[in-house]
Every structure is written in structure tokens, then in C-alpha cells.
Design goal:
Length: 324
């Protein structure tokens, strides 16, 4: 089984990235051949600051390793270290209907939030399809916001197979998204989906003081300390359940219903759990940062492994479409 996923280096990683994509990806690395990359070409659709792009790319690598990505098992690399992916995106674009891309939620959401409607942003899903198909991927662990992109990928692969393949010899495999219901959309401190672009994140490796401040500013209703509270619609309970055991979460829900405890107290409990949860990863991160060449070596090795597969698939694709 080949597993693939990517993450954009458009900012600092947050706990939505961790539970939605990084943890599932790390869990899968022992189950097959895993390829995880830093989607720097994609980040260029929203970030035009070269120093920031370099800095974020490096930190995504460091943070992913700190969280448990094992480079002996999974190949970790930069998307742009496999430039053939842009060639494949071109080929895929020639069979992709405009109308399919016009229906993409992410394009509509991003432009509504003020990201420039560039051709690159519009064809973002085509490059993402190339990312997935160039490694003959079987499984793609992602958060729910990426579901439609995987559907578009399957659609494009099917069109290529129908146009250039045969039933016996399809050009591409059809990949499956892997989305876990419990973590498909992690809420931010305002209760909306946690996202870099909403300014509602809690970062995985934020400073202690800042992280506490963010947790303490989770939006709640204005029920008084004594009043019973609703655990079903609480961002605090939802986030707490990511870090606590089931019994601990059940106890918090029960205490909500009983009343007598203020939201501030629950936020403290959430902060303590969260801070403890990432403690071993913070330590590992310090070790990784202190060895300057480690990350470079990991990325170089990952790029080599990724290129070996991409070269094979591209030879097949070029022959199938008649470029060779
Ligand atoms: P991005 O930051 O858009 O590159 O997202 C990287 C990965 O994290 C993707 O698989 C997203 O689906 C996932 N992700 C981002 N935000 C969340 C969230 N709030 N909840 C669950 N998954 C998320
Ligand atoms: N679009 C993804 C995101 O914003 C990042 C990404 C790019 C990706 N290419 C991919 C994810 C291929 C999975 C597979 O999160």
C-alpha cells in the first residue's frame, strides 16, 4: 500500500493540522510505503514572501519530524524537489473540465477571504491531483476540507484512463481519501474550523504564555458559574476530547451538565492536557533544531526516494499520452 499526503508551508502548524492530517499520516507510516511532502508550489498560491516560504517549509519539516514522522519509514520531501509534478499537472489540466474546477469549494472560500483569484489558485486541484497520481498512491490521509480535492483527483484519473488507457492497462490507480470522523474538522478558538487564515489557531509548538492565552480566549456563551452548561456544542469539550481519555471527557461533560464550574476552569484543564500532550514532541523538536544538517539530510533522502517513483510513473504517462 502506498500512502501519500501533503501540507502547505503557508504558516505555522496548528492542532487542526496535527489531528486532521499529521497524526493519521504518522500512524500509517508503518502500514505501507509512505510519502509525505511540503506543498511549497501550492503555498505560492497564497504566499509571495520568499523568506517566509523558505522558513515555513523548513519548520514544517522540523515539526513533522518532532511529531513522530520516522524518516526511515516515510519519505519526507519538498514538493518542488520533484518538479515533474508540474509537468504531470499540465497533462492532467488538458482533460480537466473548467466547470469541475469552478465548483471547487476551496477556490470559492479562498477568493471570498481575499486571496487573489490567480490561475494558479484556480488550477490548485489539478496540481494536487498530480501530487497524488505521480506516486501511484492508494491512500491519502487528510482533513475533511480536502475531501473534494480527492474526488476531483479520482475524476481526473478516470478521464485520463478513459482517454489514454484501456481496461486492462489503466494509466492511473484511483486513490482513496482517509478521513477520520472524530478529527475531520478541529474547531478553532472561535468555534469555526481551525485555520491559519481565520486567525483562530492554537499552534502545536506555540510559546507557553501565548498558547495559554489562546486557550483562555476560546469563545463560550455567557452562562454563569452556577448554571448548568451544554457540553454538546462546546468547543472546550471538543478540543479536550482530543487530548483526554474517554473517561476524562465523560467527566467533563457530566460536570458541564451539573453546573457550578465556570468556563475558565475548564479552559485551564484543557490547557494543562494540551501542554502535557505535546511535551515529548517539544523536547524532540529541540533536539532536531540543534542538529542543523539532520533536516537537510532527511529532505535530500526523501526527495531521492520520491523522484525514483515519479520518474517511473512519468515515463508511463508520457508514453501513454504520446509525448514519447
Ligand atoms: P493545510 O494547512 O491547508 O495545508 O492543511 C494540511 C492538512 O491539515 C490537510 O489535510 C487539512 O485537511 C488538515 N487540516 C487543516 N485544518 C484542519 C482542521 N481544522 N481540522 C482538521 N484537519 C485540518
Ligand atoms: N491541498 C492540501 C491542503 O491544503 C495540501 C496538499 C497538496 C495535499 N497536495 C496534496 C494533500 C496531495 C494531500 C495530497 O491541505
Amino acid at each position: 500500500m502506498r500512502i501519500l499526503s501533503g501540507i502547505q508551508p503557508s504558516g505555522v502548524l496548528h492542532i487542526g493540522n496535527y489531528f486532521g492530517m499529521m497524526r493519521p499520516a504518522i500512524a500509517l507510516q508503518s502500514r505501507g510505503e509512505a510519502f509525505y511532502f511540503i506543498a511549497d508550489y501550492h503555498a505560492l498560491t497564497s504566499l509571495h514572501d520568499p523568506d517566509a516560504l523558505r522558513e515555513h517549509s523548513r519548520h514544517v519539516a522540523i515539526d513533522f519530524l518532532a511529531c513522530g514522522l520516522d524518516p526511515e519509514r516515510a519519505a519526507l520531501f519538498r514538493q518542488s524537489d520533484v518538479p515533474q509534478v508540474t509537468e504531470l499537472a499540465w497533462i492532467l489540466g488538458t482533460v480537466t473540465p473548467m466547470s469541475r474546477l469552478e465548483l471547487a469549494h476551496s477556490f470559492k472560500d479562498k477568493t471570498a477571504r481575499g486571496v487573489a483569484a490567480s490561475a494558479g489558485l484556480f488550477t490548485y486541484p489539478v496540481l494536487m491531483a498530480a501530487d497524488i497520481l505521480i506516486y501511484d498512491s492508494d491512500v491519502v490521509p487528510v482533513g475533511k476540507d480536502q475531501k473534494q480535492h480527492i474526488e476531483i483527483t479520482r475524476d481526473i484519473a478516470t478521464r485520463i484512463n478513459e482517454t489514454f488507457g484501456s481496461r486492462k492497462q489503466p494509466v492511473f490507480k484511483l486513490p482513496e481519501a482517509q478521513i477520520h470522523a472524530a478529527t475531520e474538522t478541529v474547531p478553532g478558538i472561535d468555534g469555526q474550523k481551525m485555520s491559519k487564515s481565520y486567525g483562530n489557531t492554537i499552534d502545536i509548538f506555540g510559546e507557553e504564555k501565548e498558547t495559554r492565552k489562546r486557550v483562555m480566549s476560546i469563545v463560550t456563551d455567557s452562562r454563569a458559574v452556577e448554571a448548568p452548561k451544554d457540553p454538546a456544542n462546546s468547543t472546550i469539550v471538543q478540543l479536550y476530547s482530543l487530548f483526554a481519555t474517554e473517561a476524562e471527557t465523560a467527566a467533563m461533560r457530566e460536570s458541564f451538565r451539573a453546573g457550578g464550574t465556570g468556563y475558565g476552569e475548564y479552559k485551564k484543564q484543557l490547557f494543562d492536557k494540551l501542554w502535557e500532550f505535546f511535551a515529548p514532541m517539544r523536547q524532540r523538536r529541540q533536539e532536531i533544531i540543534s542538529d542543523a544538517s539532520y533536516v537537510d539530510n532527511v529532505l535530500a533522502n526523501g526527495a531521492e526516494r520520491a523522484n525514483a517513483i515519479a520518474d517511473q510513473v512519468m515515463s508511463r504517462v508520457r508514453a501513454a499520452v504520446g509525448l514519447r
